[in-house]
Design a protein that fits this description.
The protein is of the alpha+beta class. The protein has helices at residues 16-27, 38-48, 102-116, 130-134, and strands at 5-8, 56-62, 65-73, 87-93, 122-126, 139-146, 149-156. The two termini are 19 Å apart. Bound molecules: coenzyme A.
Length: 159
C-alpha cells in the first residue's frame, strides 16, 4: 500500500511544466518531434488540468512533493488510434519515489477513474513493464512496434 495521496492535476495546475519535462525526457523518442515537443507536452498537461474527466491527469503526492503521475486519454500514439479509444498513458514515478507502491496506486486509480467515466475497455502500450501491469490484472495482447521500438499492447475492463 502506498502512502502517497493521488489528486487530479486540476488541483495543482502549476505542476504541468515539471511533469511535462519528466515525460518528454523519458518518452520523447517514441513520438515524432514535430508532433510532440516539450511545449506540446506542457500544453497537453495544462489542458488536462482544466478538467477531472478524460482526457486528464492524476498526480501522486508524497507530502507536498509531486512523486508521479498518470494520464487517462482518448489517444496515445497516433499509430495505435485504430486499436483503442481510451488509454492509460504516461505513467511515471520520479526515481527517488520508486518501489514504494506509487506506480501501482496510480494505475489502480486511473482504472477506477476510467470505470467512473464509463470506459468499457482501456488500453496501454509498454516497452518493458508487461509483468508490472499483468500483476494488476491487465491482459497482454502481444507485441507491436512503435517508431522502431518493440512494445506490448495490453488491455483491461475497468471496474
Ligand atoms: C514503472 C514505474 C511507474 C513503477 O513505479 P513504482 O512506484 O516503482 O512501482 P511500485 O512501487 O508501485 O511497484 C513496483 C513493483 O512492480 C514490480 N515491477 C517493476 N517493473 C516490473 C516489470 N517490468 N515486470 C514485473 N514487475 C515489475 C516491482 O518488482 C515491484 O514489485 P513488488 O511490489 O512485488 O515489490 C516506475 O519505475 C517508472 O516511472 N519508470 C519509468 C517510466 C516507465 O517506465 N513507466 C511505465 C511506462 S509503460
Amino acid at each position: 500500500m502506498s502512502a502517497a495521496v493521488i489528486r487530479p492535476l486540476a488541483d495543482a495546475p502549476g505542476l504541468a511544466p515539471m511533469l511535462a519535462a519528466w515525460h518528454h525526457a523519458h518518452w520523447g523518442h517514441f513520438y515524432d518531434p514535430a508532433d510532440w515537443s516539450l511545449q506540446a507536452a506542457t500544453d497537453e498537461l495544462r489542458d488536462h488540468a482544466t478538467r477531472c474527466g478524460r482526457p486528464t491527469t492524476l498526480v501522486a503526492f508524497e507530502g507536498d512533493e509531486p512523486a508521479g503521475s498518470v494520464s487517462l486519454v482518448d489517444e496515445d500514439a497516433p499509430e495505435f488510434n485504430g486499436v483503442g479509444d481510451a488509454w492509460l498513458a504516461s505513467l511515471f514515478v520520479r526515481p527517488a519515489s520508486r518501489g514504494r507502491g506509487i506506480g501501482k496506486a496510480l494505475v489502480r486509480e486511473c482504472v477506477a477513474l476510467a470505470a467512473r467515466e464509463g470506459v468499457s475497455r482501456l488500453w496501454l502500450f509498454t516497452p518493458e513493464h508487461v509483468g508490472f501491469y499483468a500483476a494488476l490484472g491487465w491482459r497482454d495482447l502481444g507485441a507491436a512496434h512503435l517508431r522502431g521500438h518493440a512494445v506490448h499492447l495490453m488491455d483491461i475492463i475497468p471496474a
